[in-house]
Specification:
Strand content: under 5%
Number of domains: 1
Order of helices and strands: H
Shape: rod-shaped
Number of helices: 1
Structural class: mainly alpha
Helix content: over 70%
Distance between the termini: 100 Å
Amino acid sequence: MSDGSQGEINHHEMRLLRAEVRELSQQVHDLVEAWNTARGMVKFIKLLGSIATAGGAIWLMIQAIWPKK
C-alpha cells in the first residue's frame, strides 16, 4: 500500500470511530440520566417510608396513652 491509500484508510477509520464515540456518548448520557432518576425515586420512597414509620409510631403512642373505654 502506498502512503496515500494508508492515509485514506486512517481518515475513514477515524470518521467511523468518531461516529461510534458520539453514539456511545449519547448512550452513556442516557444511562446516567436514568441512574439519577432512579436514585431520586429511591430517595422519595425512603422518605415515604420514614413518614409512614413516624405516623405509625405516633399512632401507637396515642393508643397507649389514650384511655380505653
